[in-house]
Amino acid sequence: MSPIFRRMMFAMALAAFIVIPAVAATPVTWKVVTDLRTSRQFTEKWKFFAEEMKKRTNGEVVVEVFSLPELNLNGQELVRMLNSNLLDVAEVITGYVSGEVPILEGVQLVGTFRDYEHNHEGYKAFMPIVQDKYSKIIGGIPVGTFAFATMQIWSRFPMNTLADLKGKKIRVFSVSQADYINALGGEAVFIPLSDIYVSLERGLVDGCITGPAAGAGMKLWEVTKHVIDLRLGAGAGFIVISRKSYAALSEKNKAVFDQLAKEIDKIGWSIGKKDNDEGLEQAAAHGMTVLHSAKPEWQERLQEVARTVVVPSWIKRAGPDAKDLFNKVFAPIVGFDVK
User: Staple partner for 88: which of 75, 83, 194, 245, CB 3.0–4.6 Å?
Assistant: First the structure.
């Protein structure tokens, strides 16, 4: 064997024992948008998601979470932004997009659901249909649902009877809320979340529809005196991921995301219940009068408005599928159908 050949054999054998380090994948940074930084949805649920996504993907996906106000958004733009791949994941609040995507509001028609848990039943029944039939209109792939809390009227005035609502300007954030308030004699006003406090402080509105987490976060006890339940349902929506962002994941990381989506769905509804209870406790502790459930003598009238005004108005807005959707999916839950 020639010296040259021996050297070649030695070099080849040596190379077999040399481990070439793998080149680490460049991390992908995701932008997630939620409602408020003061909510547990932000401080607990999305913090958990960001930490676990980074951990379970071995640092390949890094998550940054932003609130609507800090991005100067009002929530109505999220469907368009997801479609344009300007966001990776967003909490699409049903009420906020009810004007642009009215069919989704069927799960949150004011007056039809009696409380938080009842509304959750509606979302669980509706979710498979949204995934199968309406994903193209929601901005991306719907992977879960969430809720902030039950919605109430935070008001500057007391309500002893429903007639006390007459002529009062009430902030709303969905079309069905506007139909409901107007039918009860109030005057619905659309105002973004970021403008609620100053609008109440200046007397531009007499009350606002929002939840306990947001109410406590904004310290609305400084500008209102009463929290009133009117069967307004939960403030809830859908967790949606951009199609492009999902498609860009490896199969391994898709499985990670799919599993985490299931986990944060459960966490979100659990957190919403806690935020609901604690927000109302804070309101009471700051001297507000809190009506936890609509008065028994109000129930018949509130359900009548839902049945004769809110639902028919939604069906006209939402198109030909709406009536059948309501009767098949929601009627068994809410206790009435549409003729």
Answer: 245
